[in-house]
Hints:
There is one protein chain. By secondary structure, the protein is α/β, with parallel strands linked by helices. It has 3 domains: 3-107; 138-190, Alpha-Beta Plaits (2-Layer Sandwich); 194-396, Rossmann fold (3-Layer(aba) Sandwich). The chain has 16 helices and 12 strands. Strands 5, 6, 7, 8, 9, 10, 11 and 12 form an 8-stranded mixed β-sheet that branches. Strands 2-3-1-4 form a 4-stranded antiparallel β-sheet. Helix 1 (3-23) crosses helix 2, helix 3 (44-60) crosses helix 4 and helix 9 (193-202) packs across helix 10 (219-227). The protein is globular, with a radius of gyration of 22 Å.
Amino acid sequence: MTPAARVQAAIECLDQAVTAARTGGAAADTIVQRYFTSRRYAGSKDRRAVRDLVFDVIRSIGTPPETGRAALIGHARAQAPELLALFGGEGHAPAALIAGEPEARVSQAPGWQLDMLRTRFGKDSQTQVAALLARAPLDLRVNTLKANRAEVLAELPELVATALSPTGIRAPAGLNVETLPAFHAGKIEVQDEGSQLAALAVGAQPGQTIIDLCAGAGGKTLALAALMQGQGRLIASDTDRGRLSALPQRLARAGVENVEIRLLNPRRETEALADLVGVADHVLVDAPCSGTGTWRRNPEARWRLTAERLVKLEGEQDRLLALAATLVRPGGFLTYVVCSLLPAEGEARVTAFREAYPAFFPEQFCIPGVDGSVTSCVLSPGDQGCDGFFIARLQRVC
C-alpha cells in the first residue's frame, strides 16, 4: 500500500469506529482486524501502519467526530501536517481536501467527562488524562500454581518485573504472547498490573468460598484461584455467554480445578445463585462501567460514553452491589471494583450502597502502590503506571 492508500484505509476504519461508537458496535481494534480480513494483499507493515494511524487519530480527537475523514483531517492539521499532502484523490488516495469541509478538533475528551476527571484529580487532571491516553504496556501475570516470577524471567529474559504486583511482568511492545511456550504451559496470563492489584485487594485465602460475580473472560478469576492455591470454592459467574465461554480453556491451561462456572440470565441472576445466598466469604463485584480507566487500550470509549449511558451504568452497578450483598455471609466481605476513574461510578456508588445496606462497613486493605491501609483507593496510569481503577472493600457485620 502507498502512504496515501494507508490514509484512505485509516479513514474507512475510522468511519466504522465512529458508527460503532454511536450504535454500540465492535471495538476499534476489532474493526481494523476485520477490515484487513478481506484485504489479503496488505502486508504486516501496512496493517500495523494503518492500525497505528487509526489509534493516533482516536487518541487525539476526544469528542465524537462527524466522520472518520473529519477526525483524520483534524488530527493531521494539529499533529501530523505531512498527512495532508496525501489527500488528492488519485489512485487509492483520499479525495482532495475541500475548503471549509468538516474537521474535528483535537481535545483530550468531551468537556463533561473532563469535568468529572477534574473532580477526581484536581490540578493534576491534565497530566493524568494525558497518561490515560498514552499507549499501554503489555503486562503479564505469573501463574503461581505453575511457576514463580524468577523462573519465568529466567526463561524469558526479554521480560522484566513490574514495579508493584509481586507476580507481574512486563513484555516488550509487539510480543506475541501466544507463541511463547510459557503461555501454553499455563505459566503466564495477559493481565494489566492494575487488574492484578485489584485481585490482591480481595485478600483471597485458601479454603474460602469466593464469588466473582462479573467474571467476564476470567482474568481476575484466574488470579484469585492462584491466590487460593487451588483450594476452596471459587464461583465465576456472568451474563455474557461469549466472554464466559473463553474461561474453561484458560482454567485448563492454568491448572485450575476449583472453579465453578455459572452463566446467569440477565435480571434473573438470583435464580442461578440461590444456593449461595449468605454463604460467600467474599464477593468480588467487578462491575460493568464506563471504562475511563482503560482509555490507553480503548480510547474510543470516550466517544461511546454519554451522560445517559453513564446513568444506566450507575443503575447497573447499584443493582449488582445489591445482589452481591445477599450472597455475603455475616462477617464476610465484598470488594467493589470498576475500571473507571469517574467519582460517580466509585465513591458515589459505595455511598449509595451503604445507605441502602447499613450492615456493610468499610474494611481496610493494603495493596502495593497505595500508601498504608485504606478502605478504598484509586489506581491510575499517571500514579501507578497501570490502568485506572476504583477499588473499595466492605465487611458485613455479624
